[in-house]
Amino acid sequence: MQKIPQHIGIIMDGNRHWAKERNLPTLEGHRLGYNKLKEITRLCFKKGVKILTVFAFSTENWNRSKKEVSYLMKLLKRAVKESLSEFHKENVKIKIFGRLNQLPKDLQKLIAETVNKTKNNTKEILNIAFNYGGRAEIIDAIKNIVSKNIPAAKIDEKIIKENLYAGELPDPELIIRTSGEQRLSGFLLWESAYSELYFTKKYWPDFNEKDLDEALQEYDRRERRFGK
């Protein structure tokens, strides 16, 4: 491969379908999906990717059963306490963004501590979009702009990007979605304007290094014109 995307976004879809097809509890699919996140993160960084942004929990996921939502909250807490500490030792910066003020207070505190702990790390960046929605992000960016009293005449793409959750980061060159669905479902709506999209039928718990390589090879074959 001649070119590797510096920023990849992944919509980790299919945990529930994976479990259902195997007559397993939904929560087992999420547990394995969490383990897969750790594996694929390290593989991406090993292959030269500098920034990985994953879609872990959307603003619409609150409509799922209380049991499932509660488990996903516990899973994020576990990730913050365990795995993210491992990445800290590997000099990886951790960012978690979304409408975090709607999460349980203890989880908010844990997230803030982790983000602060890793903010000076310089090797790679792992972004976790949690309680995230692309429209919600744009709405919140507009609210930030209004609160700063920025005149309408001065608002441009640069100003809007600066007020996004992770506006300081470059846009993703490649977005991967697992499970066969072919839509963004609100993931990085502003940032994905010129992202290459790659869809695979593999469920997230089954996604492996070979699948990642196929996505990277497909990206390598594409010519990015940016409207030119």
Description:
- With 228 residues, the protein is of the alpha/beta class.
- The chain has a single domain, classed as Undecaprenyl pyrophosphate synthetase (3-Layer(aba) Sandwich), CATH 3.40.1180.10.
- 43% of the residues lie in helices and 16% in strands.
- The protein contains 7 helices and 6 strands, in the order βααβαβαβααββα.
- The protein has a 6-stranded parallel beta sheet with strand order 3-4-2-1-5-6, sandwiched between helices.
- Helix 4 links the parallel strand 3 (92-97) and strand 4 (124-132).
- Helix 1 (15-21) packs across helix 2 (26-46).
- The longest helix has 24 residues, at 66-89.
* CATH topology (level 3) name: Undecaprenyl pyrophosphate synthetase
State the fourth-level CATH superfamily.
Decaprenyl diphosphate synthase-like
Helix content: 40-55%
Low-confidence stretches: none
CATH architecture annotation: 3-Layer(aba) Sandwich
- Mean pLDDT level: 94
What is the CATH C level class, in words? Alpha Beta
C-alpha Rg (nearest Å):
18 Å
Number of contiguous helices: 7
Number of structurally distinct domains: 1
The share of residues in extended strands comes to 15-25%
What does the overall shape look like?
Answer: globular
- SS-based class: alpha/beta
Intertermini distance: 24 Å
Strand order of the largest sheet: 3-4-2-1-5-6
Number of DSSP strand runs: 6
What summary fits the major beta sheet? 6 strands, parallel
Which series of helices and strands comes N to C? EHHEHEHEHHEEH
